[in-house]
Amino acid sequence: MTTTSYSRDDLISDQIAIIKFWRGYMFLMYFLNYLLGIASVILAALVADKPFPVANSSVLYKGLATALSAVTGMVAFINPERIGERYQRAFRVLSVEITRFRGDKK
Length: 106
Hints:
Elements: H1 8-11, H2 13-49, H3 59-78, H4 80-103
């Protein structure tokens, strides 16, 4: 009779890999949320304040306005904060279950 010795983490190695991915993706989404949010605030301030003379066909002003609408659209369409929150909830649930499994000595 052959007995194979496994550590408890070997039995849940797939779940451990998944939780590491979810944690990384959660931080990526939160980073993207802050990056796009800060960019949209800065661009909105520049477009609204017009700290430079604006002619009728100012390329710089049109570029800033276009960038503002693109960044704002990405925040609304991608909604990284909501996605990050979902990964955070999933991460927490799986983390609790892994902790329970590791603590169970049966």
